[in-house]
Amino acid sequence: MICKKETIQREQVIARYLARTLDAGAVEEFEGHYLGCDECFEELRVSERLAADLRASLSPNLSWKQNGGVSILQFRHTAELTQSAKELDQLRREVLEQSDSRVIIDLGRVTKIDSAGLGQLMGCYSHLVRNAGVMKIVNANAEVCRLLDMTGISILLPNYNDEQTALRSFDVTDADTKS
Ligand SMILES: [Zn+2]
């Protein structure tokens, strides 16, 4: 298929598609188009890679992947979500400054959390809810779970024991909203 889009126009559409700022009609049109268009498909793939690399360089201890429209954030090494930890800043950047709306935060490698860390989690949660998003946490250790319970945060942000269960819970929530 010969693409009728101009290069500049293609770059703009892809940038806005990845930032989720296209309106529903434009998303539908682009998704219907790029799978059959080698040029747009390749450009989209490269843009996605660049965006992922940029995120990795800004947040070296935080990995980011997509699964079925859900962004999953996971620490690469053990991390503390405490007042002076640089991971707090990385988490803020990943959640508050990105346009992802369905986010899972994997706390499996988080060994310690304090009030600053809990505050940051709540900040991420509020940000997503304000933007019609959803946030889930998974793999929190016993100590982190205890603090989440103690502070009442677990009522808003229950911990899921694994990623698959958390991913499935998004679909359940969606089904509830639609019915
Ligand atoms: Zn195209």
Walk me through this protein's architecture.
This protein is α/β, with parallel strands linked by helices and 179 residues long. It is built from eight helices and seven strands; from the N terminus they run H-H-H-E-E-E-H-E-E-H-E-H-H-E-H. Helices cover 56% and strands 17% of the residues. The longest helix is centred in the N-terminal third of the chain and has 21 residues, at 38-58. The protein folds into two domains: 1-58; 60-179, Transcription Regulator spoIIAA (2-Layer Sandwich). The chain has helices spanning 7-18, 24-34, 38-58, 86-96, 115-130, 142-150, 153-156, 163-178, and strands spanning 62-67, 70-75, 79-81, 102-106, 110-113, 134-138, 159-160. Helix 1 (7-18) packs across helix 3. It has a five-stranded mixed β-sheet with strand order 1-2-4-6-7. It has a two-stranded parallel ribbon with strand order 3-5.
Short structural description:
This protein is α/β, with parallel strands linked by helices. The chain is built from 8 helices and 7 strands, in the order αααβββαββαβααβα.
What topology does this entry show?
Layout: H1 7-18, H2 24-34, H3 38-58, E1 62-67, E2 70-75, E3 79-81, H4 86-96, E4 102-106, E5 110-113, H5 115-130, E6 134-138, H6 142-150, H7 153-156, E7 159-160, H8 163-178
Parallel strand pairs: 2-4, 3-5, 4-6, 6-7
Antiparallel strand pairs: 1-2
